[in-house]
Amino acid sequence: MKVVNTIRELDEILVTERQNGAQTGFVPTMGALHEGHLSLVEQCVAENDICVVSIFVNPTQFNDQNDLATYPRTLEEDCRMLEEKGCDLVFAPSEEEMYPEPDTRVFALGRVAEVMEGAHRPGHFNGVAQIVSKLFAIVKPDRAYFGEKDFQQIAVIREMARQLGFPARIIACPIRRESDGLAMSSRNVRLTPTQRQNAPVIAKTLKESTTFVAGKSVEEVKSFVINTINQVPEMEVEYFEIVDGNSLESITDWSETDFPVGCITVYCGPVRLIDNIKY
Ligand code: PAF
Known about the structure:
Blueprint: E1 2-4, H1 7-19, E2 24-29, H2 35-47, E3 50-55, H3 65-70, H4 75-85, E4 89-91, H5 95-98, H6 117-120, H7 124-139, E5 143-147, H8 151-164, E6 169-173, H9 193-198, H10 201-210, H11 218-230, E7 235-244, E8 260-268, E9 271-278
Helix pairs in contact: 7-8, 10-11
This protein binds pantoate.
């Protein structure tokens, strides 16, 4: 496995690989890798001739400077795990390398970028579109892999790729969970022991809510989820929406879609956790 820090080095390797007919798979990450990321890497390695993983904590997608400052950075350990999984190439650029000048592009990604995370984290998806479009332009992947924990992010990236004409196939991979159900996230390490003990209530409640979809209205299911989680100390639901999984528009009646997805964000102390479930 090779670790490169500059666009030029990465490009030199990938140009040669492409000339030899290699199919390139790409897993963009912000590092602090866990089993969730590694499952994307495994799939990427299995389905492509060359697997590229980027590690870059992208400042333009953080609307909270404290979240950016405390985001875990574990490059050495990340590289060790990537090598074990058979990754070929790690791209770990500096901020100056990715943003030699401020990126002033403003994306118009429509409703999928405006609802839920878009409404609660102003500028977040524009930052994601800025960095992923830069990375796609550099790596030119045939396939790119994203985890479904960030369900909305996948829709936003699909729209960005469509608008800019990137040919990469965007591949959505299932959420990986801890044994107690908590969705794997780089932010989980910031939970105190008590918060960590309580956090699985999110997944547990979402799962439980799927069992009474047949008998309850959308509003009743939403109230059940929000009230159950809010009763747990230090936990506060920021939003819980049941949406059409393609348009991401909220539904008020189950008959409005055959692909209902519940998307939730919960503050567990200061740590913002997200999760989702298909009904
Ligand atoms: O999902 C993430 O880790 C980030 O949003 C991504 C896609 C790597 C862009 O910085």
